[in-house]
Hints:
The strands form 3 sheets. Strands 6-7-8-3-9-10 form a 6-stranded mixed β-sheet, sandwiched between helices.
Amino acid sequence: MLQAADIGLSYGDAPVLRGVGLDVARGDIVGILGPNGSGKTTLLRVLAGMLRPQAGRVLLDGRDVASIPRQLLARRLAVVPQEVHLAFDYTVLEIALMGRYPHLGAFELEGPSDVEIAREALEATGMLPFEHRAFDTLSGGEKQRVVIAAALAQLASDASRTRGPDDGAPGGSLLLLDEPTAALDLHYQIEVSGLIRRLNADRGMTMVLTTHDLNFAASVCHHLALLREGRVLAAGPVDQVLDAAAVEALYGVRADVQRHSGSGRLVVVPIGRVDPEVRRARQA
């Protein structure tokens, strides 16, 4: 579905991504793991077509995302940012309706079908009872669910509208999430994790997410890509990629990685920081 090949990008003289490759199959949940400053968010923006790489290219169903008109791309691919800053006071429903913009013509206002789609998206994320609440009055986890609802509304088609000739592109929606559980307490982390799994299982939605939370990634992702200093250290199924050696290479931390007997998921328990000299000697 989505393929990044040999992506390279620099900010000035500072390389951020170096020969990065990533393959995302339809219906997959792929986690991009790495420490702060590893290039995770930059890679997500490249995948979304928001940044154009200086080397390599990103393909969506075999088509270079740079060649896809922005409005059409936005009907297939939505981004959930880490933080949302609003200039005005919007209600929850108004935020969800913002996702319908790619489906509107110039100066066209949202119609009844757009409101219905936005309300369905809020229902899917459990936020419909809050539709008239001001967005700024919500908790962090509630805000995250509303922003995800806006993304779902963005990706929803409307059969009542006339489509252009380019709208016959292969189907399948792609959701890109940047640190979806950052700054959330444990309760909302579990809530957002459950929502991601449910959207994937019930709707077959393909997702790519960035995180530095290893246990969150192990609980929701099917595949992982480990990113450090702009390079992919390893990529593949969670069970094959996430182990003690990978955690040390990625974060410089000794960890115990075991399968939890109750949940059946891998659990990462940090033990201690690896001495930098020892680490350099191992990498030599």
